[in-house]
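Supplementary Methods. Inverse-folding protocol.

Structures were first reduced to a discrete structure-token string of length 449. This string, shown here, constituted the complete conditioning input.
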């Protein structure tokens, strides 16, 4: 570095060059950084707005679904002998149900075999419902190996086999997988050994029916209904009723009523998210008069337009309908929610909620269109604005890189220029020193004469 210091001029060339480069850099760098800071702030503010509106879109979808799809709640006493659940196709009503019998699958047990006794060779034919299985019985099979083979062939459908051990020996046990008379297990055999004992035709055979197959029976409002399963899916439209115990001579009540709890929760959530969206727009475009500080999007026409459109959709001719649903619109455009008024409105005018905020409701349709026009990944205003800012920031970053390259070249150019100047000054100084010396010598020679 010392070699760059001027010999002839006495200038500190590195420092001077650095100062000149800094003077060249500062205006452009400040301009780029200022633009970058503003663009980054706008991008952050747009991200907040976009997030808020995405949340509003999700909340609106949930609310519209809740208001368009009716919900019902079944009420059943704990000792009624059945449980119930409902779908949106149910209707309010009350039903008295007596559980006469439960559906059961049959169970068959063979006579006793010794633990290592061979069953015989041949085949077993098992039937349940409309299905039939054939199990090959090898000559070396015991009851345990036969049970495993039955389970392998059946694959868990229709029948399961197991072996129990009593005081008299081992017994093959067959359990029907399904319930009701249609799923009862029967079997026959062909072969030698004791295979003939493994039979049951539904009434007689070599096996004992410990539990007979039976259908479920209920009496609903005095009407008898039989079912092969303990679960009734069409006993009451829109309700699934599962029997748990018999209640012969006693009825249990099933009461189905409209359930607005989910819709109420969704409405409360929508109001909160809507207000959060308005606050996000306000915060991004506010101006602090006391500190004279503007926000990232102060005066932005897009933000003002969104604020006005949201307030217009929730205002205008919709105020009275919203109020009937417990939603009030404040002077600043924010919403407030009264749960009691909502429940009252749903009870008195259940169809109005869907008409206003359901999937095809007047407010929901307008609000959904506004949100889609701003959030669509291809054409959304917010998305395009965000993409534009990202491109601007990328260009500013490239401008800084280009500025660095230019300043490096400026540094080299200034250094060469000042070094050349210093060399010239040194040469001139050497010439001056030479001439001064020659003149001094000449003057000395003259004086001696």
């Amino acid at each position: 570095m010392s070699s760059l210091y001027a010999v002839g001029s006495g200038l500190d060339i590195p420092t001077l060059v650095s100062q000149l480069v800094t003077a060249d850099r500062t205006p452009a760098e400040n301009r780029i950084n200022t633009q970058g800071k503003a663009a980054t702030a706008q991008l952050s503010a747009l991200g907040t707005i976009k997030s808020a509106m995405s949340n509003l879109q999700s909340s609106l979808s949930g609310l519209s679904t809740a208001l368009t799809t009716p919900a019902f709640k079944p009420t059943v006493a704990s000792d009624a002998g059945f449980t119930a659940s409902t779908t949106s196709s149910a209707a309010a009503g009350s039903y008295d149900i007596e559980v006469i019998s439960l559906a059961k699958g049959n169970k068959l047990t063979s006579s006793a075999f010794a633990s290592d006794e061979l069953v015989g060779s041949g085949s077993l034919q098992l039937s349940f419902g409309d299905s039939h299985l054939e199990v090959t019985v090898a000559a070396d099979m015991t009851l345990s190996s036969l049970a495993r083979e039955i389970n392998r062939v059946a694959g868990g459908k229709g029948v399961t086999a197991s072996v129990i051990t009593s005081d008299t020996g081992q017994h093959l046990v067959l359990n029907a997988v399904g319930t009701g008379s249609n799923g009862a297990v029967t079997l026959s055999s062909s072969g030698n050994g004791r295979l003939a004992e493994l039979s049951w035709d539904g009434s007689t055979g070599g096996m004992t029916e410990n539990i007979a197959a039976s259908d479920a029976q209920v009496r609903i409002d005095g009407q008898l209904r039989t079912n092969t399963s303990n679960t009734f899916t069409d006993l009451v439209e829109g309700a699934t009723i599962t029997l748990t115990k018999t209640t012969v001579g006693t009825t249990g009540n099933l009461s189905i009523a409209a359930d607005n709890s989910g819709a109420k929760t969704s409405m409360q959530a929508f109001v909160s998210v809507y207000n959060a969206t308005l606050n996000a727009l306000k915060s991004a475009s506010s101006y602090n008069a006391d500190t004279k500080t503007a926000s990232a999007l102060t005066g932005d026409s897009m933000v003002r337009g969104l604020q006005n459109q949201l307030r217009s959709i929730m205002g205008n001719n919709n105020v009275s309908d919203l109020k009937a649903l417990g939603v009030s619109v404040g002077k600043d455009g924010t919403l407030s929610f009264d749960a009691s008024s909502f429940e009252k409105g749903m009870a008195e005018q259940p169809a109005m909620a869907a008409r206003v905020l359901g999937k095809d409701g007047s407010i929901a349709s307008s609000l959904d269109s506004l949100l889609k026009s701003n959030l669509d990944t291809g054409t959304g205003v917010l998305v395009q604005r965000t993409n534009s800012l990202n491109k601007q920031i990328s260009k500013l970053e490239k401008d800084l890189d280009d500025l660095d390259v230019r300043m490096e070249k400026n540094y080299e150019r200034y250094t060469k220029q000042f070094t050349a100047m210093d060399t010239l000054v040194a040469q001139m100084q050497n010439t001056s020193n030479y001439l001064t010396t020659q003149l001094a010598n000449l003057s000395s020679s003259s004086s001696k004469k």
